[in-house]
Design goal:
2 domains, DNA-binding, Arc Repressor Mutant, subunit A, binds manganese (II) ion, Dna Ligase, domain 1, 5 strands, three-stranded mixed sheet, binds zinc ion, homodimer, alpha+beta, globular
DNA sequence: TTGATATTTAGAATGATTCCAATTCTTATG
DNA sequence: CATAAGAATTGGAATCATTCTAAATATCAA
């Protein structure tokens, strides 16, 4: 859970590269996201950040995550109108939500699938993003 | 916008078949959804229902739409955390949201695409539903 | 027709998120 | 290193889609 100096520097690099000032809170929130890639909600990120020495406010967790999304460091994941979840996986991927455990898994998207998906759009439709969400059950704790 | 007797009877049939009592309000809300398949929000369905003689409450619009969803007559469509939209198209289809106009279009899903999508899931993942949402721009008013 | 059950309704409550204004940081500059 | 301007953090208030409540109405099988 604690970052070594190398990881911390790399993380600061990510923030700077994204045009964000590397504050103590941002470093911590980002490290929380990278530590367990289980698509936590804001509330969950906040809980996991309580270990931070002087604490962190819920508003700041919202602000950090928002700035990460704007700068492309993380993506939001929504299921219906449940609290938004956050995902640091930048590869093209879909999500699968196990409706029994509530866990959300990453599903890698092969390029051929993306191509086939774009091919179903009528003439003149220019997609900028696509979101693919499964939900169902899973027999094993894969991925 | 007004239903003829034949349509009304068919609509009552749908409700009864779904195990729902065919009330004046449900008939009206469903007819509103079927009249313009443009994925209206609750608020929009409510506006379009003001023509109903004795009016209809917002709570009832929520209730009607919820009962339609539960009985499988309509589907919900969510984009981020915007107000939920409602769709009476029961064929397998994706959605495309034009970010300039806000309009949401239906995109038919060929069976081969569904099959390919299921094939990307790891062993043991049993999907019960899949949601596919594009957003971007569109050059023409197709669909 | 009538009673049991379901639906409708206005308004209150909820809860995730956003907004606000005051305080504290960060960092460029001298 | 000191300073100042802009950026980030913060607690609490505000927003707003949605859900809940409990009282009034409507539906329908018997
Ligand atoms: Mn977007
Ligand atoms: Mn579902
Ligand atoms: Zn993910
Ligand atoms: Zn649709």
């Amino acid at each position: 859970m604690r970052l070594n100096t190398t990881d911390l520097e790399r993380l600061k690099g990510s923030l700077k590269q994204a045009g964000l000032k590397p504050t103590r809170q941002r470093e911590h929130v980002l490290s929380v996201l990278l530590a367990r890639r289980d698509h936590p909600t804001v509330e969950e990120v906040w809980q996991r950040s309580r270990t931070l020495s002087r604490g962190i406010s819920l508003a700041t967790v919202y602000n950090c995550l928002e700035s990460f999304v704007e700068s492309g460091l993380v993506k939001q994941v929504n299921y219906e109108r449940e609290p938004t979840r956050y995902c640091p996986n930048l590869r093209p991927h879909a999500h699968f939500k196990d409706q029994e455990t509530g866990r959300v898994y990453d599903i890698d998207l092969p390029n051929e699938v993306l191509i086939q998906l774009n091919s179903i759009l009528p003439e003149g439709f220019r997609p900028e993003a696509i979101e693919i969400s499964f939900h169902g059950r899973t027999k094993q704790q894969a991925s």
